Amino acid sequence: MSSTSAWPYPRWIAHRGAGALAPENTLEAFRLGARHGWRMFECDAKLSADGVLFLLHDSTLERTTNGHGPAGRHGMGALAQLDAGSWHSRAYAGAAIPTLEALVRFCLANGLLLNVEIKPNPGQAWQTGQAVGELLARLWPDDRPAPLLSSFHPSALDGARSTAPALPRGLLVDDFATGSTDGDAALAQAAALECRALILNYRLWLEHPALVAQAHGAALRCLGYTVNDPADARRLIGLGVDGLITDRIELFVPDYPGDCR
Ligand code: G3P
Ligand code: MG
């Protein structure tokens, strides 16, 4: 890895498919995002009780489905029966929780790029990373820009490295550790995991602008989430941040391929 390593991703990434315009992490959301012209998507992946990777942000089912309790206690058959759309709007009533494999196949069929956030159930970080790596190494062809794997959990990225060492990893950080006012610990952690990217809550880039050059100097691309305000986006781009993850798919207009690096 070097600072000049190819980075085949666009600047803009649609968060959870289509932000708030469709029920997050459903195939309907990714379809809507693609219809708006988006070409790279973030999603949240975790394991079902029977070992199937599926898309859901929360550890529990209540907020975004008509199910109850910890999501990881259910098998995929039961999860697939849930209504993951009605909470959003009537137009999406009956939308299903998809497997990660279904989203991968959708992306491959449509020439779309993927950022899979490994969002493990409690206590399952390493094994979830391992499973995500295994699935993507098996399904994603070598001649397409590889999925970017990311996680707040270092052990999830380590698990992904164990099964898919060639897939690029990005360390997610929401806040710097108490006592650390800069990103040194995050940079060290990203280096230890051989990451290609540091993906921060965008406010951290704004609060620590010198960190962009530090990360670039360490051969890390700089991404920020969740950037929903145009003024923030302009400031981040001005700082040299390489990628912006946003909910506002109707507001920002990705300029492909002009915004690719
Ligand atoms: O992957 C970026 C972002 O999705 C991380 O936060 O809570 O929206 O998954 P969250
Ligand atoms: Mg996420």
Q: Could you walk me through the main structural features you see in this protein, from its secondary elements to its overall organization?
A:
It is an enzyme of class 3 (hydrolase). It is a single chain. Residues about 255-260 have low confidence and may be disordered. The protein has a 9-stranded mixed sheet. It has a single domain (about 10-60, about 100-245), classed as Phosphatidylinositol (PI) phosphodiesterase (TIM Barrel), CATH 3.20.20.190. Helices cover about 30% and strands about 15% of the residues. The longest helix has 15 residues, at about 125-140. Helix 4 runs parallel beside helix 5 (about 155-165). With about 260 residues, it is an alpha/beta fold. The structure holds SN-glycerol-3-phosphate and magnesium ion.
Key phrases:
EC 3.1.4.46, 261 residues, 9 helices, disordered C terminus, alpha/beta, Glycerophosphodiester phosphodiesterase, glycerophosphodiester phosphodiesterase activity, TIM Barrel, binds magnesium ion, hydrolase, PLC-like_Pdiesterase_TIM-brl, binds SN-glycerol-3-phosphate
